[in-house]
Amino acid sequence: MGATPPGRRRFLAAAAVGVGGVIFGCDGDSRRAAPDAPSTPRLMPEGLPLTALATLHNESPDPSQFVATLVAAAGPAAPLPGTTTSMLLYNGFAPGPLIEINERQHVRIRLDNRLAEPTTIHWHGLPVPADQDGNPMDPVPAGTSRVYEYDLPPASAGTYWYHPHPHETTAAQVARGLAGALIVRADDDPLARLPEVTLLITGLRLSPDGQIASDDALDWTVGRQREMLLVNGGRLPVHTIRPGATERWRICNATASTHLRLTLEGHRLTLVGTDGGLLGEPVAGLTEVLLAPAQRVELLVTANGSPNGRYRFRALRFEADYLNLGTYRDQDLLTLVTTNETSAVPFELPTSLRPIVDLGPPVVHRLVELDEVHDLCTGKGATTTFLINGRIFDPDRVDFAAVAGQVESWEVANHTAMAHPFHIHGTQFQLVSRTVGTVITPAPYLAWIDTVLVPSQQTATIKVRQTLPGKRMFHCHILEHEDNCMMAILDVRPSPS
Ligand code: C2O
Ligand code: CU
Ligand code: CU
Asked: Do the domains 19-30+194-338 and 65-185 sit in the same CATH topology, yes or no?
């Protein structure tokens, strides 16, 4: 989806000038809620056609360069008729514009921070130099700009995302709108001829006054709860497809803490890619695909061959509601509608996609233990908090020192009562196995990932190799956990040779 259809662009661009219906809304919506419940936020219009993400424009005439500017600024949005919600926008959009770059391009993106607070842009999952990674030790003060500049190595094609990563305020900035999708394309993409759809899933929770609700004590404990799920900024959009046609869906979970068990009624899904791009071979016949916070997948969806069908693309409840909060419920994401055309010629799935080489035998072994405690990190109201190896995040401390190029094995052991999506900056890694008690389950296939979900009382064993020197964060990607102590630093030293 290179180009944004002009109508959609105009619809989204309303955000930049503060016209009504800014992000999710539309002028003249006929389904305005009755004015009898002023204190209850009314839902934004549902069931509009799926909106393609706006695309970040490349300002460079030289095709080997990608040069652009992202302006982060507060702006009015109108998710509810008659209400103005202050959100944080990238270039006037929430979610931010889709960045599409090629593997061999030199990237230079300027961030203009017009927020009233420091921010950064973190290029989640991309192997960029440590000083270009937008980590919390490298803030861009309010009212200033900086340029992020990097080259992407070969074979980095995949679906990524960008989001702010300032010290202790990442959750708040993402909840107010700052997040966007980023696609790195390869010249030799075996699926290049398939139509593509990018679906960025975000969460929205408004307080009765129509403003983005702040995190409360419960959110700070288990991650932001009770969010309405939006797809490309819209609630329950409708996506139309010819019967029997195959599309490539790139899906990014940009929510703070919602685990999405993706399922499409009446269909099986084919997994072809994970965080770091294509798998070795397609994995077909799936009834559901679990997408933890921060993870991405690429799915091939072949629409049912019957015309005029309606199928719900849903996020099923992931976890037992062990705290009895009434959360973790099923939510519909999108409605897939088949047209009345005749069935499309079936797409022939390639048997192999892109070779993935095992990282090989590790030379360093590390244990990363996730624990819950009750008396630390309670400043934001959390009752239970979570630590990595018993320590509170300290930006001035190095937790692990590694050597660039060396393969390491990390055992991430979750001793807590909830699942944590564990993320490492700077590289893609490989899941080796999962262990529960004495039962070890090897990973079913090789895949490049940057975030691994570690359920309660489970140990995930991964293999990691950093290639670039510098300090890298590793943390839980429930954003409230990341902001509230559950983060640490890996210092990658240059290889001695
Ligand atoms: Cu999405 Cu520290 O990252
Ligand atoms: Cu990251
Ligand atoms: Cu966590």
From this structure: yes
Distance 184 CA to ligand 3 centre (A): 28
Give the closest ligand to the alpha carbon of residue 136. Answer: 1
Q: Are 468 and 424 in contact (CB under 8 A)?
A: no
Nearest CA to ligand 1 atom 3: 124
Local confidence band at 16 (pLDDT 50, 70, 90 cut-offs): very low
Q: What pLDDT is stored for residue 41 in this prediction? A: 46
Measured in Å, residue 425 CA sits from the centre of ligand 2 at: 5
pLDDT in tens, 413-423: 999 999 999 99
Residue range 104-125, pLDDT digits in tens: 999 999 999 999 999 999 999 9
134 — alpha (psi -120 to 50), left (phi > 0) or beta? left
Return the ∠ at Cα 149 (arms to 144 and 153), rounded to 5°. 155
CATH superfamily of 65-185: Cupredoxins -  blue copper proteins (2.60.40.420)
Residue whose C-alpha is closest to residue 314's, from 232, 236, 392, 421: 236
- Give me the CATH code for the 364-493 domain, please: 2.60.40.420
CA-473 nearest atom, ligand 1: 2
Q: Model-level pTM?
A: 0.91
28 Cα–ligand 2 center, Å: 40
Q: For ligand 1, which residues put their CB under 6 angstroms from it?
A: 122, 124, 163, 165, 294, 423, 425, 473, 475, 477
* Closest atom, ligand 1, to C-alpha of 163: 1
Q: What percent of the chain has pLDDT over 70?
A: 88
Burial letters 21-60, b for 16+ CB under 10 A, else e: bbbbbbeeeeeeeeeeeeeebbebbeebebbbbbbbebee
pLDDT over threshold 60, residue 29: no
What tens digit of pLDDT does each residue of 75-87 get? 988 765 566 899 9
Q: Report CA(480)–ligand 2 centroid distance (Å).
A: 15
Q: Domain segments of the chain: what residues? A: 19-30+194-338, 65-185, 364-493
Provide CATH code, domain 19-30+194-338: 2.60.40.420
